[in-house]
Automatic annotation (TrEMBL):
Signal peptide: none annotated. This is 2-methylcitrate dehydratase PrpD. Residues 272-428 form the MmgE/PrpD C-terminal domain. It comes from Jezberella montanilacus. InterPro entries: MmgE/PrpD_sf, MmgE/PrpD_sf_1, MmgE/PrpD_sf_2, MmgE_PrpD, MmgE_PrpD_C, MmgE_PrpD_N. GO terms for molecular function: lyase activity. Belongs to the PrpD family. Residues 10-249 form the MmgE/PrpD N-terminal domain. It comes from the Bacteria.
Length: 458
C-alpha cells in the first residue's frame, strides 16, 4: 500500500506545478537570463571541438520532425536530438556554470532541454525563464544532499541528476499536473547516468552525460503526458537512486525555504575553460605574476596545495595527450595560464598540448593537499599557490574561492565579455542579436531567440 505522505518527487512536483513567472524575484529572473547567455556562448564555442562535430554529423543525418534548432546546423531537428546535441556542445569546453555545494553543472542539462522543448511548443521567454529556474532548483538541492558521497562513488552528478532538472523544466513548459510531473521526474530518475572514469580515459565523450540528461528530460515528459507512470519513490525507495548511488544522503533541509530561496542564485560561472577544481590555482598564479611583474621565463617551479577532490579529479595527469585531458590537469592548465596569461576556450588545442615550454613547466608543478583546504571544502574550493623564481625569490597567495562564485561574483559585464569571446567566429551583427534578445528574454518569444541562434549555422 502506498504511504500517505508525499514522496520527495511528489513534493517537488507540487511546487513546480504551482509556480508562476510572477513568483520569481527580479534577481532570479536576471540571473537566469545571464546564465542562459553564458550557456549559449559556451555552446557556440563548443562546436569547434571534435565530439560535438561527431554528434552533429550523426544526428543531422537522421530523419525526423523539424521542431528545434541544433546549434551549427541550418535546419531544424526533433527536439530530443537538439537537446542531445546542444547539451554535448555546451559541455565540450568544460566552461559551463556550476554549483559547488552539489558538485554539479545544472545549466548544461536544463537549458538545452528547455530551449529545445520551448521552441517546439512555440512558448514565451517568460515561460522559458521559469522552467530553467525550476530545473536548477531540483538538481542543486538534491546534489547538495547526495554529495560528496555520490561523487566519491564515481558518479558524474551532472549526468545522474541532470535528468531531473531537464524533466522538471520541460514538465513546467508542458503544463503537467502534479501526477504527470511526478511520473516525469520518476521516469527521468531511472535514466540518470554518468561515470567519472572518463577523467582517466575517454574524456572526449564526457559531454555525453549532460547531453543524454537533456534528451532524457524531454523523453520523460512526453512519456508522462501520454500516461506512462514513473516510480514516485525513485529517489528514496529501497532500490532508488539514493541507495544505489550514494553511501550518505543528507535530507535535512532539502525543502528549506523552497520558493523563497532560489538555488540558481548560488550558481558560479567559469572564466577559465578548465575543470572548476583548477580555477583557484589559475587565479592565484596569475595574480602572483601580475602583482610581482613575473614573466613565464622567470618561473622555476610552482607548488599548489588544495583539497582532495581537486587532486582526485585533476591531479593525476601532468602531461596530457589530448586537449580534453589538459582541462583536467592542474599542472598543465596552470602552466598554460602562466605561458599565455589566460586559459580561454581556444587554448585547448592539440598544438598547445604538445607545446614544449608549457610541458617543461608542467613537469615542475606539484599539487598536494593539506588539512586547511580539506576541512573547508565545499564551503571553500581553495588553493595555496607558491611560485619559486629562477633567481631565488618566492611568492605565495591563498585563493579561497575562484572568480565567478556568488561570494566572488562575476559582473554582468563579465558575462557579456565571456559570451563575446566565445562567439568571435561569427559577425558582430549576429552575436549582438543573440545577446540583445537573451538579455531581454522576458520580453521576447523563444522563437525570437532561436531565429537569432539559427544564424550561427555555417
Amino acid at each position: 500500500m502506498r504511504q500517505t505522505q508525499d514522496t520527495i518527487l511528489e513534493q517537488f512536483a507540487a511546487f513546480f506545478c504551482q509556480m508562476k513567472f510572477e513568483d520569481l524575484p527580479q534577481p532570479v529572473v536576471q540571473k537566469t537570463k545571464m546564465l542562459t547567455l553564458d550557456l549559449l556562448g559556451v555552446t557556440i564555442a563548443g562546436l569547434k571541438m571534435e565530439f560535438p562535430r561527431i554528434t552533429k554529423d550523426y544526428l543531422t543525418s537522421l530523419k525526423g520532425i523539424e521542431e528545434a534548432t541544433l546549434f551549427g546546423h541550418e535546419g531544424k531537428v526533433p527536439a530530443i536530438h537538439a537537446a542531445l546535441a546542444n547539451g554535448i556542445s555546451a559541455h565540450a569546453l568544460d566552461m559551463d556554470d556550476g554549483y559547488r555545494y552539489g558538485g554539479v553543472h545544472a545549466g548544461v542539462a536544463v537549458i538545452p532541454a528547455a530551449l529545445a522543448y520551448a521552441e517546439s511548443k512555440q512558448l514565451s521567454g517568460k515561460e522559458l525563464i521559469l522552467a530553467i529556474a525550476m530545473g536548477y532548483e531540483i538538481i542543486n538541492r538534491i546534489a547538495k544532499a547526495m554529495n560528496p558521497s555520490h561523487l566519491n562513488r564515481g558518479f558524474h552528478t551532472t549526468g545522474t541528476l541532470g535528468v531531473l532538472g531537464a524533466a522538471a523544466a520541460c514538465g513546467v513548459l508542458a503544463g503537467l499536473n502534479k501526477e504527470q510531473m511526478t511520473s516525469a521526474l520518476g521516469i527521468s530518475a531511472l535514466q540518470g547516468a554518468g561515470l567519472l572514469e572518463i577523467l582517466h580515459d575517454g574524456s572526449m565523450v564526457k559531454p555525453l552525460h549532460p547531453g543524454k540528461a537533456a534528451m532524457a528530460g524531454i523523453l520523460s515528459v512526453e512519456m508522462a503526458k501520454r500516461g506512462a507512470k514513473g516510480p514516485v519513490t525513485a529517489l528514496e525507495g529501497p532500490k532508488g537512486l539514493f541507495n544505489a548511488m550514494a553511501d550518505e544522503v543528507k535530507l535535512d533541509g532539502l525543502f528549506d525555504n523552497l520558493g523563497v530561496e532560489f538555488y540558481i542564485m548560488d550558481q558560479y560561472i567559469k572564466l577559465h575553460a578548465a575543470c572548476r577544481h583548477i580555477h583557484a590555482s589559475i587565479d592565484g598564479l596569475l595574480s602572483i605574476m601580475t602583482d610581482n611583474e613575473l614573466q613565464f621565463s622567470d618561473i622555476a617551479d610552482v607548488s599548489v596545495t588544495t583539497y582532495p577532490v581537486a587532486t582526485s579529479f585533476c591531479g593525476s595527469t601532468v602531461l596530457p595527450d589530448t586537449a580534453e585531458g589538459a582541462k583536467f590537469s592542474i599542472a598543465y592548465s596552470t602552466a598554460m595560464a602562466a605561458f599565455y596569461g589566460d586559459v580561454s576556450e581556444d587554448r585547448y588545442a592539440p598544438s598547445i598540448v604538445d607545446h614544449p615550454e608549457i610541458q617543461a613547466l608542467a613537469l615542475n608543478i606539484r599539487a598536494t593537499t593539506n588539512d586547511r583546504w580539506t576541512a573547508s571544502y565545499p564551503r571553500e574550493r581553495g588553493a595555496t599557490i607558491l611560485v619559486n623564481s629562477k633567481v631565488g625569490q618566492s611568492f605565495s597567495v591563498d585563493v579561497p574561492l575562484a572568480k565567478g562564485e556568488p561570494e566572488n561574483p562575476a559582473s554582468d559585464a563579465d558575462f557579456i565579455a565571456k559570451f563575446k569571446q566565445n562567439s568571435t567566429q561569427y559577425s558582430d551583427a549576429i552575436t549582438t542579436k543573440v545577446l540583445d534578445v537573451t538579455l531581454a528574454l522576458d520580453q521576447h518569444s523563444v522563437e525570437d531567440l532561436t531565429k537569432a541562434l539559427s544564424k550561427l549555422a555555417p
